[in-house]
Design a protein that fits this description.
The chain is an alpha+beta fold. It has one domain (1-195). The chain has three helices and nine strands; from the N terminus they run ααβββββββββα. The chain is elongated, with a radius of gyration of 23 Å.
Length: 195
């Protein structure tokens, strides 16, 4: 069953993609160029005999650029994997390099609620243990400020759904319409439990 757009996770904006480009491509290439310029200015003329410094420096910069672009492409592609499916079987979440499928017995929908992270700071992810964290995008495993372990799939907004599980961790999700997602979650859960 397809999840309607209202219940789907909020997609990442262009800001995390820009941060990713700056951190994984622009910064490493700039550091490489700066290091090569510094090394060239410190080298003695005798060491440069028989060597074409410009050609080897350009090869180094090209190699670093290609490597950084490949890593950027791989992570940017993973960031597009940001979806949730809510149906009669339970909840499936795929975000970044992580995925979780939870049946209704593993979820505690009666304790789920929409929280504003600006007001309820105890639910804010503060320590990334295995995931991606960029301004405007968090995906994977984190410790919340209240020290609870959480599987997080957010795209920068402050209104999220906090959903405890029976597995010793919480879910922190940012659907496009948190209240509609929560209502559908609580609507499906009793029907499955009765059936």
């Amino acid at each position: 069953m397809d999840t309607p757009p209202a219940w789907q996770l909020q997609p990442p904006s262009s800001a995390p993609r820009l941060w990713l480009l700056l951190l994984l491509v622009v910064l490493p290439v700039a550091i490489t160029v700066g290091a090569l310029v510094y090394a060239a200015s410190e080298s003695s003329p005798e060491r440069l005999v028989g060597r074409s410094p410009l050609a080897s420096d350009l090869a180094i910069v090209a190699g670093v650029t290609v490597l950084c672009l490949a890593i950027h492409w791989f992570i940017a592609r993973a960031m597009r994997r940001h979806a949730a499916t809510l149906d009669r079987d339970g909840l499936s979440i795929a975000t970044g390099f992580h995925a979780r499928t939870l049946g209704w017995r593993e979820l505690l929908p009666a304790r789920a609620r929409v929280v504003d992270l600006d007001e309820h700071t105890a639910f804010k992810p503060v320590l990334k243990t295995n995931g991606i964290s960029l301004p405007g995008f968090q995906s994977g495993w984190f410790r919340l400020r209240n020290l609870r372990r959480a599987f997080v799939a957010t795209a920068g907004g402050s209104r999220v759904v906090h959903l405890p599980t029976t597995l010793g961790y919480d879910l922190l999700l940012q659907p496009r319409q948190p209240q509609a997602f929560l209502a559908r979650l609580q609507e499906l859960a009793p029907a499955v439990a009765q059936g």
